Each structure stands twice: as C-alpha cells, then as structure tokens.
Amino acid sequence: MRILVATDAWRPQVNGVVRTLNSLARAAAKLGVTIAFLSPEGFPSFPVPTYPGLRLALPGRRRIAERIAAARPDAIHVATEGPIGFAVRAYCRRHDRPFTTSYTTRFPEYISARWPIPQAWIYAALHWFHSAATVTMVATPSLTAELSGRGFANLGRWTRGVDTDLFRPDRAIDLGLPRPVFMTVGRVAVEKNLEAFLCLDLPGSKVIVGTGPQEAELKRKFPDAKFLGMLDNGILASHLAAADVFVFPSLTDTFGIVQLEALASGVPIAAFPVTGPKDVVADHPVGVLHEDLAAACMGALSLSREACRAFALNYSWENSARQFITHARKVATGNTGAPELAATITETVHG
C-alpha cells in the first residue's frame, strides 16, 4: 500500500508535526506500507513575518496534480490546513477522490494569541476543511470530545509514539547547572506559554531548549534562565535525560510528543491540567498536573524516574502507524496488497 501525505510542515522546520510524520514513515515501512510526502519542496514560497525561518508554499493547481500523479498513491492523507493541504483537498474534491485528514494544531488559539480574530471564525473554517474527509484523525480522547462538541464528525484516533532507543535515561550528561534542573523543549513562541514557566519561583535551574520568535524577548526578561537553542536529536536526548523535571506550560498543544520523549528519558512531567498533558499523564504517577504550575514542578521532583521510563515503553510508533494505516485503508483505491508496494519510504515526491 502506498499512502501520499500532503503537508505544509516540513524540513527544515523542527516541530511535532514534522517529527510525527517522519516517525510514521519509518514505522509504516516496517509494516510493509510506503509513506510518500507531498511537501513544500519544489514550490515557490513566501516568508511568514511572525515565524522567522518559516516559509509557506505557493502550490499551483497543475503542479499539485502532476505530483499526485507521479506518486501513484493508493490513499491520500492531508496532514495540515495550509496552502499544500488546501490544494490537495481541492484536487481530491475535483476528482471525487476520498481522503483523510488530521487535526494536529490548535490554529484558533495560535492565531488569536497574535491577532484579534475570533476563534469561532477560525473553527468554522477548520470545520469546513475537515468536513470533506472520510476520517479526521485526532491524537487524544479529550481533543476528540472537544472537536465533537464543536460539530466535527468522522473523528478517528491516531495516537503518537516515542523512540525509546533514542530517548532513555542512560544518555544523561552533566549539564554543570545547579539542581534541580527544570527543563522545557519546544518552539520559543507566545502560544507555548513559556513565560508562565520562566516567572516561577523555583530552586535550581530553568532550561529552555528550542528557538523561535519570542526568544530575544524572553532572554531579556529572564536573564537567569539558560537558553540552549535548537539541539539535534542525539544531543537533545542527552540533555533531556539530564533534567529533573520536564515542564510543559503550553495550554494549546493537542498532544506534545516531547512529553513522551521526557518520560522515556526517565523525567517526570509538570504541566497544567489541559488537553495533551491530561491525555498523556492522566492519573498515572509519571507527572503532576496542577493549576499552580510551581506546585506541579515541586511535586514532580518526588516521582519515580523508573516509573516514567516504564510508562513510555507502552507507546510505540509501530502502534501509531497501525492506527494511521487502518484509517487510510478506508480511502484506498487500487490493489493495496501488491507486493511491489512493500516498504520503501519516499521522503519527498518529485514530479
């Protein structure tokens, strides 16, 4: 079976969507399924002023059709609601071809954090976008319930996984910082609510891994915090395992794969009781969820690192890929069992 995933989020971006899609492709290959990507590569693009380094593609209708034809997919999945996603959705509608989508980013909350645009308007646009899909894949039960309450239909579960070989406790290095070390990892942007973490009165050290448009501002406001910038996976794993608590202050993430990466590294989580942390941590003794984030941070210090690691071992990318493939088969055409479609990952579709 060959699945084409249309995505606006792609390298060199480093975010949860890109990491999820790459992990999905590797896991699907082991299951005999090819994942190909129709990404922004090869299209003209323009910069996004509020996201330095981010560019959005300008996909032409004819070029989209050529790249889909070149991919010869059995199934099409639209991963993002950007220009690529809209163009592939339009192609499928014109050709009366069923497709799946996934809801991975809280655009209404992200956008309203920057501009005075009512969230209801954005949710209405997203409802229209996903209403044409045979299945809209959602990562967590609480997000499924929330979207269902907003009128979204045909929702299906697609959970996430973690590379437990890469993220593990024995990778920890000495950071040379006063302990305890409270660490967060992700894009340094307003929607991540990092200021809620950085303003806390905590002992030891606060460490931020990642870059983004709010970095310079936060460095000025919180000079005692350690900003390490972007770290490659291997280096990230060694730093993450060195933390005492992983702090996840976001109020808008739909899942937060980095939570699983922290747990696989033996690091307990401190977070607000919102979608994402509620679904990952729930009532398991691997994190503390509290409206008082400082209380959550201090409470997490007493949790078992061994319990965190054991919990993360239950999450595999292979299981995540099986869920995704099950949904994709609902829109598959052609001979999906053909032996020649065995596991070769085509990372980018070139027309």
Count of DSSP E strands?
A: 14
Helix vs. strand class = alpha/beta
CATH class of the largest domain: Alpha Beta
Principal-axis shape equals globular
Helix run count = 14
Strand content: 15-25%
Arithmetic mean of pLDDT: 90
In the predicted model, the low-confidence regions spanning at least 5 consecutive residues are: 335-351
Note the gap between the termini.
20 Å
Assembly type of the shown chains?
A: single chain
* The CATH fourth-level homologous superfamily of the largest domain: Glycogen Phosphorylase B
- Helix fraction, binned, reads 25-40%
Describe the protein's architecture and organization.
Strands 2-1-5-6-7-8 form a six-stranded parallel β-sheet, with helices on both faces. A six-stranded parallel β-sheet has the order 11-10-9-12-13-14, with helices on both faces. It has a two-stranded antiparallel ribbon with strand order 3-4. The radius of gyration is 20 Å and the shape is globular. It has two domains: 186 residues, Rossmann fold (3-Layer(aba) Sandwich), CATH 3.40.50; 144 residues, Rossmann fold, CATH 3.40.50. 36% of the residues lie in helices and 15% in strands. The protein is an alpha/beta fold and 351 residues long. A hairpin with a 7-residue loop joins strand 3 and strand 4.
